[in-house]
Amino acid sequence: xxxxxxxxxxxxxLMAAALTVALASSASAADVTAKxxxxxxxxxxxxxxxxPNSAAAGGANVTxxxxxxxxxxxxxxxxxxxxxxxxxxxxxxxxxxxxxxxTTGASHWVSNTGGGTVPNSSRFGANGxxxxxxxxKADLGGGKVCGETVECAIVTRADHFDSGDxxxxxxxxxxxx
Length: 177
Known about the structure:
Blueprint: H1 2-30, E1 31-40, E2 43-52, E3 54-55, E4 60-67, E5 75-82, E6 107-110, E7 121-122, E8 130-136, E9 139-141, E10 144-145, E11 151-158, E12 170-173, E13 175-176
Parallel strand pairs: 3-13, 6-7
Antiparallel strand pairs: 1-2, 2-4, 4-8, 5-6, 5-11, 9-10, 11-12
């Protein structure tokens, strides 16, 4: 019995170390940060959007956070089809469309004008920050499937008060498995 115990003891730390490395690698590879510097109204904003770059094709709830946003300009956070670099073209269509009832959880509205008063909305925190949960999945509907018919990203984009403004578009490209 001693021989067997001795044989297992040296392997246990190696197995634990390998598991720790594997977990640390997958956790750090899952979240990425996209950055964009913009100037709006003579003020410069350092936008940073952090979220996962991959998800389950059938759907997953993910946390997305941001900092450096203009608290005077609300943004939508969601999964959308993208075409070109951030700011080149409006990210659309987006999963869930205009989910004003808050039933899909596919988008979140961050705004200091009305945020927190309707489902899936909140106000900005200090330094234009936010942390929200959204639901993502590969099938956007209408024949639009991420990675097959369209390229997709978790995005921020200006809200309905200035929907044509492309300055607040930040993209985290997403692949689905």
